Amino acid sequence: MEHPAYGALRPVTKYASVLLAHNPSPMTLEGTNTWVVREPDSGDCVVIDPGPADAEHLRQIADHGPVSLVLLTHHHSDHTAGVAQFAELTGARVRALDPALCRGAEAFRDGEIIKAGGVELRVIATAGHTADSVCFAVEHDEPAVFTGDSVLGRGTTVVAHPDGDLGSYLKSLRLLAELPTGLRVLPGHGPELPDVQAIATAYLEHREQRLDQVRAAVREKGPSVTPRQVVEVVYADVDRSVWPAAELTVQAQLAYLREQGELP
Predict the structure, then answer these.
(1) What are the CA-CA distances from residue 180 to residues 109, 110, 131, 177, 232 (Å)?
(2) Catalytic residue positions?
């Protein structure tokens, strides 16, 4: 099986399999990836991002239990709307960076090692897409990083002002770009990728190119340019269905340039 594959648990590594939620959209790509994590000889598993409140999707995930722990990469509803129902189905504890999302367990600590399902996952705080975004690195056999929406399997990530912060996101990308080569990307949307270092580096280059385009648009339109006017120039090649998200991204870009002293 290859991505996308709905309704079937698709093995990706010996310890990680993915069930794709049927919630496709311009923002979620083919849908949300729910990851089931366990070593083959483990009696329990970890679930990363149960996904939307889709009863059939949640039941299918629960059928691959027992689930001892749920981990959330960030608060967006396409990753978390099903959490309450899933916790009731499985009795699993829920952990996130935001304490308000936790159930029966404490919030993450950056750098913490989580041991469950026979797997060790290192928490990496990667604020930017949202303030509470995290990744989980598995650094033993078949090393990989569960990236949530910090790195996608296709396209690039929206940094939507004000929860999204471009300065924080650039720092997070640099952090991911410093990880060892060969760590696979197991994303929240889209197919897996072979090397987080390479894709994070490419993301950084893309963001710098976009910032240069925004700077050029500001020079052309003047410092009172609106985010919509920037979108019409910089994101003219992007489907208009995602222009509202692009406008929020431009707000984050303009805020970043102001923080850098490049705009009044």
Answers:
(1) 22, 18, 25, 8, 38
(2) 78
